[in-house]
Amino acid sequence: MRVVVCNKCGAKNRVEENRLAAQEARCGRCKNRLTAGDFNEDKPVQVSDGTFERDVLQASSERPVMLDCWAPWCGPCRAVGPIMDQLASESHGRYRVAKLNVDENPRVASEFRISSIPTMLIFKNGKLVDRLIGAQPKQAIVDRLAAVSQSGARS
């Protein structure tokens, strides 16, 4: 299930992904057709091994994606979590914030060699362009995300 905001009336709708993909989803209030581009992104998107390509790699062709790799037992990860929530609510469509639980999604964690958490990966145009390891203050994360947004990649 995804929360999709109607682009006509602004109503929030819970929609099954298969109905959204088949273009069968309609707004409960105004009956307008809902599209995949209407996702409500004021919260981080929960990513799994199965949705990583769609939610991160394909989404990063439009704008950068910050992927927070974390685990529920990790204290520093819990400290970074509220920062990720703030960044998502402040994104205004400039970037996307996503979260990946490394314990539940070992394929992606292994593919990107996540050996310490929290690790934040920044993707742009379907490619990994920056990596932040360890708990970081909000401003440091914002600065790195802004640098990627402006230049495309960090050295």
Layout of helices and strands:
Elements: E1 2-5, E2 12-15, H1 17-21, E3 45-47, H2 52-58, E4 65-70, H3 75-90, E5 96-101, H4 106-111, E6 119-124, E7 127-133, H5 138-151
Parallel strand pairs: 3-5, 4-5
Antiparallel strand pairs: 1-2, 4-6, 6-7
Describe what this molecule looks like in 3D.
It is built from five helices and seven strands, in the order ββαβαβαβαββα. It is of the alpha/beta class. β6 (119-124) and β7 (127-133) form a beta hairpin. The protein is globular, with a radius of gyration of 16 Å. The model has no long low-confidence stretch (mean pLDDT 86).
Gist?
The chain has helices at 17-21, 52-58, 75-90, 106-111, 138-151; strands at 2-5, 12-15, 45-47, 65-70, 96-101, 119-124, 127-133.
Give structural attributes:
alpha/beta, SH3 type barrels, five-stranded mixed sheet, 5 helices, single chain, Glutaredoxin, globular, 155 residues, two-stranded antiparallel ribbon
What kind of sheet is the major sheet?
5 strands, mixed
Tell me the structural class.
alpha/beta
Spatial order of the strands in the main sheet?
3-5-4-6-7
CATH class of the largest domain: Alpha Beta
Helix and strand run:
EEHEHEHEHEEH
Q: Which fold does the CATH topology of the largest domain refer to?
A: Glutaredoxin
Helix content: 25-40%
Q: Beta-strand level of the residues, as a percent range? A: 15-25%
Distinct helical segment count: 5
Shape: globular
Q: Kindly report the average pLDDT value.
A: 86
* Straight-line N-to-C gap: 38 Å
Question: What Rg do the Cα atoms give?
Answer: 16 Å
CATH architecture level-2 label of the largest domain: 3-Layer(aba) Sandwich
